[in-house]
Amino acid sequence: MLLQRLANKVVQLRMTTPAILFMESVRPLNYVGSQVMVFLAPLVQIVFSSPEWDQLQQVLEKRESLGYIVDLIEEKESEYLMEVKKRKNEAKVGQSSSKVSLVRRIISRFKKDTK
Description:
Number of domains: 1
Helix content: over 70%
Mean pLDDT: 83
Number of helices: 5
Order of helices and strands: HHHHH
Structural class: mainly alpha
Low-confidence stretches: none
Distance between the termini: 69 Å
Shape: rod-shaped
């Protein structure tokens, strides 16, 4: 879905906070913004595909749509942060096990040298 891709792109670009701040600040102009999109459609079709632009414009006509988009972005951000935390924990476990093996090798060398 278009909104899923939008939320993923915002999180991927690490623009969650500015995007949410922007959407919350323009919430009262939600409908007006969708009508401006209708006006700009001929120009924008040079860059964007027409069905996606029309779909986004129709979504933005509804007042509750910005709240839904904000919730979706926050959910994707939460998933992203959980994944980053998981990777960091896995990296720490890998580092600690490599440190243990290094200590074991040093001890075994030391034992060989003292014999």
